[in-house]
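quick one, 192 residues, struct below
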Amino acid sequence: MYKYIYDHLDPKYLKEMRQWPIYDQTTISNFNVVLAHNYPKKNFGHELLPYAEQKNFDKPLFDKTFDIAIYGHTHHQLMRTSSKDQLIINPGSIGQPYTAWNKFSADRRAQYAILTFDKTSYRGIDFRKVSYSIDDELAFAKANKLPFYELYERIFTEGKAFTHNNDALNEIITKYDYKPDVLSYLKHLEND
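---
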């Protein structure tokens, strides 16, 4: 997927994106908020899945100055607190929502969350889902020759992601001979 983006995105945007921080912070109605893809200092991993240990949602996500942490990496809507009652929110995902529970995995709607504040305090959170045309999404992906299209299609038809399924990924890499492209791309990145 990275190679596809690299090949199809204007280089000026790639250069700009390389400069982006992996987290940001802001203040809303006197609440200090941290926004991160995953942890503020770590952009990958599975430590923040909704059923993970409490310690994973404490110190690595927060320092004592933040009231609210918002992250997205796990693609799973969530609201919980740190051990000190700081608020932790994952608004979900647009395109690849995740759940391990089969009855929920068929729901492919785009997810987001709305936080509201008033003069007194944090007022509430509203988790939302909205339908969009999966047929249009898949037609666009196919027309643009998205690599791993077969697995991408299965995300929408079966509700299962293959991001960490090495057998399925290697099957597609072999079938379409993606390996030389990936190695060439990685070499190019080293020289970039």
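DSSP finds seven helices and seven strands in the chain.
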